[in-house]
Amino acid sequence: MQKKATWQQNLAVLWAGNFMTGMGFSMTMPFLPLFIKTLGDFTKPQLTMLSGIAFAITFLVKAIVSPFWGQLADAHGRKIMCLRAALGMTFTITACGLVRGITSLIILRALQGAFSGYINNANAIVAAAAPREHSGKAMGTLATGNVVGTLLGPLLGGVIAGTFGYRSTFFVTGALMAVVFVTTLLLVHEQFTPVAADQMLPTKQIFHQLRYPQLIIGMFVTTLIIQAANMSVTPIISLFVGELLHQHGPIAMVSGVVAALPGAVTLVCAPALGALSDRVGPEKVLLAGLTFATLVFIPMSFVQNIWQLGFLRLLVGVSDAALLPAVQTIMTQHVPQSVFGRIFSYNQSFQAVGSVVGPMLGAVISGQFDYRGVFAMTAGLLVINLVVIRFTSRPLLHPAQNET
Questions:
Q1: Degrees (nearest 5) of the Cα angle 285, 288, 289?
Q2: Domains identified in the chain, total number
């Protein structure tokens, strides 16, 4: 009973930590170019380039350093990595609100990515402690924290920035990360057996020892594509909303609501879909979620009014609730606990790459074609992902055939 209470307490505290961390990464997105504009006298091309660098550098550095932190997590524990990430983000994000030049901002955004790692280590803690029969629901519940925080962050950040100024958003986010540090320190309890340095397997050997190495690589690719699909509309959502509203009305407010709609639905649906994956298998939920997401993005290319777009964005929340928790559950069930830190950190690296690739593809496609082309491109990515998962998850879908 005590063990059950401990993993449930960890889940609750780490959910809140994931939520605030996801929000911290995304709160400044709506106004980052406007904030950069106040830091110097830039031409339009310069402002566009600097905004892209400031946005992308966080995720690029995050993708590079995550495996290093993952190795330390397997050697020294995942809780200490959560504390390191929360404290690092507390200082770097707060400092962003004090900068006077663009160079300082870009350096701090890079450091923010370097100190990342809270979410993947929180996933590892819950994955290691939750009973196997509840792993799907536990990972589904935990995943909603990051997803909802990331989706609601721009809405809240825009409100704070509009009311108190751009810099205030950094201070609020820094304060939230300080709260994450304290609650994680006091309320998260980890039972961890460190791996000795001479027993730490190289990455190549880890994959050789996995029963289904192709499956885990397929999960990495899936994480990248899901994140790219979610982020592909980031550069164009407010512009597309303005087009649907014929450039009249509260475009900024409606854009914020449309961007945040999937998060609200994900919050409600993810635990239930996680519980479903415990009963029928996460691989089946993942395939169904990818199919559903594809069918949702295709009609987005043909919407004629804001209500149609809003309804389809609600359905995106359902697919998000199925996809990322299923990925986490599959990795939990088919990876040894001794390498959770590294496997989850590799997965975070792929997610960070998706955060860079998605907006870049969205910007390129919308520039070459139009805003509607972004949704068609996203549907195409999901079809590719569906083919990858059908191939890599074959041993789970047809276990008898695999054994013969």
A1: 80
A2: 1
196, part of any domain: no
Query: Structure tokens of 13?
Result: 């505290």
pLDDT tens for each residue of 140-154: 788 778 877 877 787
Write the DSSP assignment of 199-248 as a string of letters: G---HHHHHHHSS-HHHHHHHHHHHHHHHHHHHTTTTTHHHHHHHHTTT-
Is residue 195 in a domain? no
Nearest-5° angle of CA 344, CA 74, CA 184? 75
Q: What is the pTM of this model?
A: 0.77
Closest C-alpha among 227, 250, 241, 254 to residue 351: 227
Dist CA 84 CA 68 (whole Å): 13
Identify the DSSP state of 126: H
pLDDT tens, residue by residue, 91-109: 999 999 999 999 999 999 9
Residue 322, SS3?
Answer: helix
Cα separation, 11 vs 15, whole angstroms: 6
Is 119 contained in some domain?
Answer: yes
